[in-house]
UniProtKB/TrEMBL annotation:
PANTHER family: RE15880P. This is GL18643. GO terms for biological process: positive regulation of apoptotic process; positive regulation of autophagy. Keywords: Coiled coil. Residues 163-220 form a coiled coil. The gene is Dper\GL18643. GO terms for cellular component: Bcl-2 family protein complex; cilium. It comes from the Eukaryota.
Length: 379
C-alpha cells in the first residue's frame, strides 16, 4: 500500500529538505533518532487502518456505482462524459424527466410517465382505491404501472445518494493516505541522512524484507476488509428499513382516515424499496459471497407486493398475504445481517488482526534495532 521500503534512495526534494533540516540542528543525533522513533510509531498506527488498500477498494466501488447509476439514467458514451462535465460545473440534476430514462421505461401510458408521487396519492384518493376492494381491483394494473415508474425514480435517487456517500468515504481515506505518505517521506529523509540510503546491518535488511512481506499480506486483507465493511453497512441499512416498513404496514389496519392511510402506505413502500436497493447494493459489493437466509425468490415476492401495495390495502386477504411476505422478509433480512457480521468476525477479522499483530511486532523489532544502530553510528 505504498509502505515502500524506507531504504529507497531515489532523489526526492522533500527528503533532501528533511536531511538538510536535521543537519542544521544542534545535538542532532538524539533529536534525529527520537524523531525517527516517533514517526515510525505514528506510521505503524496509521498503517493499521490500511488507508491505501481501502482507498483503492472505495475507488473501484465508486466506479461500479457510477456505472450502475449511469445505466439507470440511460446514459452511455458521450452522454456520460457530458453528464460528468455538468457535475464538475456544479450542475445539479434534481428534476429528472422521463426522457432521461431507458427506452424500455418510456414505453406505455403517458399518464404513468408524467404522474409524480404526490399526484398519485391524490388520484388514489379520488378513485377510492384505499377503502373499496372492488375499485382497487378495477384499477390495480394502472396503479401498478404508476408504482413501477415511481419506484424506478426512487432507485435512481437511492443509488445517487449511495454514490455521494461513498465519495465522502473516499475523500476521508485519501486524506489519511496523503498524511501517511508525508510521514513516509519524513522518515525516509531521516534514514537517508543517517545511513546514506543503505542497510547498516544484515539483520536490518532481513527484518525489513520480512516486514514488507507482512505488510503486503495485511494490506490485501485490509482491502477485502473494506468490501465487507461496505456490504455490512448496506445490510444493516436494509434490515433497519425493512423493520420500519413492517411497523408502518401493520399500523395501516388501525388507521381510519383514507389520506393518512395512503400516506403511511407510500412511506412503507419507500422504506421497503430502500431496503431492497440496499440489499442489491450489498450483493454487488461482495459478489462472491452468497448471503444466507435471503433468496432471489423472496426478493421478487417483496417487489411484487410493493408494486401492488396501494391497491392491496382494501382487500383483506391480500393485505394479510402482503403482511406475511413483509414479515418473513424483515425476519430473514435481520438474520442475514447478523450472519454476515458473525461470519466476518469469525474469519476475516481474525486473519486481519493476526496479520496486523505480525506487522506490529516486526515494525517494533526493526524500529528498536535501527534506533540502536543509528545511535552507534551517530556517536
Amino acid at each position: 500500500m505504498g509502505c515502500g521500503s524506507s531504504m529507497e534512495t531515489q532523489s526526492n526534494p522533500v527528503v533532501t529538505e528533511v536531511s538538510t533540516e536535521f543537519r542544521q540542528q544542534q545535538n542532532g543525533a538524539a533529536n534525529i533518532i527520537d524523531e525517527y522513533v516517533r514517526l515510525d510509531e505514528q506510521i505503524s498506527k496509521m498503517e493499521g487502518s490500511c488507508p491505501g488498500p481501502r482507498m483503492a477498494t472505495a475507488e473501484a466501488w465508486i466506479e461500479h456505482l457510477q456505472g450502475k447509476h449511469d445505466a439507470m439514467l440511460g446514459l452511455d458514451g458521450m452522454e456520460v462524459a457530458q453528464r460528468r462535465q455538468e457535475e464538475q460545473q456544479d450542475t445539479e440534476m434534481e428534476a429528472l424527466t422521463l426522457s432521461s430514462y431507458p427506452a424500455q421505461k418510456r414505453d406505455g401510458n403517458q399518464i404513468v410517465a408524467n404522474t409524480p408521487t404526490k399526484d398519485l396519492a391524490q388520484l388514489a384518493y379520488n378513485l377510492g382505491v384505499i377503502g373499496d376492494a372492488r375499485k382497487a381491483s378495477m384499477h390495480e394494473d394502472f396503479f401498478a404501472n404508476l408504482s413501477e415508474s415511481a419506484l424506478y425514480l426512487l432507485s435512481i435517487r437511492y443509488y445517487g445518494e449511495l454514490l455521494e456517500h461513498t465519495k465522502e468515504r473516499l475523500k476521508t481515506l485519501a486524506e489519511s493516505y496523503a498524511e501517511l505518505n508525508e510521514l513516509y517521506v519524513r522518515q525516509d529523509g531521516i534514514i537517508a541522512y543517517i545511513s546514506g540510503g543503505t542497510y547498516m546491518t544484515r539483520l536490518e535488511e532481513t527484518i525489513d524484507e520480512q516486514l514488507e512481506t507482512a505488510r503486503d499480506t495485511r494490506d490485501k486483507l485490509g482491502s477485502t476488509l473494506e468490501q465487507w465493511r461496505i456490504c455490512g453497512l448496506l445490510l444493516r441499512a436494509a434490515a433497519n428499513s425493512s423493520t420500519q416498513a413492517l411497523k408502518q404496514w401493520r399500523q395501516l389496519s388501525r388507521i381510519i382516515d383514507p389520506k393518512q392511510k395512503l400516506q403511511w402506505a407510500l412511506d412503507c413502500r419507500s422504506l421497503l424499496h430502500a431496503s431492497m436497493i440496499s440489499l442489491e447494493a450489498a450483493q454487488l459489493a461482495l459478489p462472491h459471497v452468497e448471503l444466507k437466509y435471503m433468496s432471489h425468490r423472496q426478493v421478487l415476492a417483496v417487489k411484487h407486493c410493493n408494486t401492488y401495495l396501494i391497491t392491496d390495502i382494501a382487500n383483506k386477504a391480500r393485505y394479510e398475504h402482503t403482511s406475511r411476505v413483509f414479515s418473513t422478509y424483515e425476519a430473514n433480512m435481520s438474520k442475514t445481517c447478523t450472519w454476515l457480521y458473525e461470519t466476518f468476525n469469525n474469519t476475516l477479522r481474525i486473519d486481519f488482526d493476526k496479520s496486523e499483530r505480525t506487522v506490529s511486532r516486526l515494525s517494533k523489532t526493526l524500529r528498536d534495532h535501527r534506533a540502536e544502530v543509528f545511535s552507534t553510528a551517530r556517536k
